[in-house]
Specification:
Elements (H helix, E strand, L loop, with lengths): L1 E3 L1 H7 L2 H16 L9 E4 L5 E9 L4 E9 L13 E7 L5 E6 H20 L6 E5 L5 H11 L4 E5 L3 H14 L6 E4 L3 H5 L4 E4 L18 E4 L20 E4 L2 H7 L1 H8 L8 E4 H6 L12 E4 L4 H18 L3 E2 L2
Helix pairs in contact: 1-10, 2-3, 2-10, 3-4, 3-10
Length: 327
């Protein structure tokens, strides 16, 4: 079994690699080539939850299981909010062939989900990005945003101003090659003002931005909400949106309050949720059709992303002789 930590993965796998892997996962899901059951969630103490996510792809001769635990208050103690491990399993023998840092795999593939959505749904000419939330998922979200479009500036907001300022300083250095000016915002509304790309990645139970202030032509990726009683997205944006698209329509309509609460309130219907990003990739659902459209992308994360990403990481690590072999 090959053991791969974050440093190992960073040696062999890029943000663009992750975006490409996630696109493959979405296409394979829509083509029925991956068995990816809805996650099992066990609620825990401390506002936390334990999540178990299996997947199997016969075409890849591979299966995976991710165990990820969501503890939003960890950030206040300097701990990761989403500790996880991913097991990659040989589909021909049932042997576990790799154990890898699931926290980083999750960060990569979740960021890449937004990157894939922006690749496929955002207008070509984008100038400003906005990121709300600076927790464990934020860095790869920002990297994928910058990978998908050449931005001049990114505005960042977090309820903890010191944490936000520190995050921006770190990202200005780490992501300097993209050439974007990354600066903290005084409020969420100031953050999204005039933004072409918007990402929300928080554990909020209530909307974190004013949907009436989103500019026409914006593409919004809502990332943080995975429970029916939580929502980051202001439902005011939904009647303004030309399209609502998910990573998985089935999963999103089972899990996220971003959609379930507005549906229950009669603001939208299930039919307004047009489909999945794999449908756009396959050409069965149109993507952006004009620069004025507001498009909402809702991502809850599916195990197919973990499997395809982990398999791609493993193949590259084996090719380059990276990692520790545990016999």
């Amino acid at each position: 079994m090959l053991l791969l930590n974050r440093a190992d993965i960073e040696k062999v796998f890029t943000t663009r690699d992750a975006i490409d892997a996630v696109k493959t996962a979405f296409k394979m899901t829509e083509d029925g080539k991956i068995v990816s059951p809805l996650r099992t969630v066990i609620e825990g103490k401390y506002d936390g939850a334990f999540l178990f996510m299996p997947a199997y792809a016969p075409e890849l001769d591979a299966a995976s299981l991710k165990v990820i635990d969501i503890f939003p208050h960890n950030i206040d103690n300097g701990l990761m909010t989403s500790p996880a491990q991913v097991m990659l399993i040989d589909g021909a023998t049932g042997y576990v062939v790799a154990m890898m840092d699931g926290t980083f795999v999750t960060q990569l593939r979740t960021g890449a989900s937004s990157g894939a959505a922006f690749d496929l749904l955002a207008k070509k000419d984008c100038r400003k990005g906005a990121l709300i939330g600076t927790g464990g998922q934020a860095e790869t979200q920002l990297a994928s945003m910058l990978e998908s479009r050449s931005l001049e500036e990114v505005s960042v907001y977090d309820i903890n101003a010191d944490r936000c300022a520190a995050f921006c300083a770190k990202m200005r250095e780490k992501l300097a090659s993209y050439g974007a000016d990354i600066q903290p915002a005084e409020s969420a509304d100031a953050c999204i003002e005039d933004a072409d790309l918007i990402i929300t990645v928080t554990a909020s139970r209530e909307p974190v931005f004013d949907g009436t202030k989103v500019k026409e032509g914006a593409t919004i990726s809502c990332v943080g909400t995975y429970q029916p009683d939580r929502r980051e997205m202001d439902p005011a944006i939904l009647p303004r949106a030309a399209k609502i698209i998910c990573d998985s329509k089935e999963a999103a309509l089972s899990e996220t309050g971003d959609l379930l609460i507005p549906i229950a309130d009669g603001i939208i219907t299930e039919d307004d949720v047009l489909g999945s990003l794999g449908d756009v990739i396959n050409g069965t659902l149109p993507g952006r059709e004009s620069d004025d459209e507001i498009i909402v992308y809702e991502t809850v994360g599916i195990a197919a992303q973990d499997l395809v990403t982990a398999k791609a990481i493993y193949d590259k690590a084996v090719e380059k002789g990276i990692g520790i072999v545990w016999e």
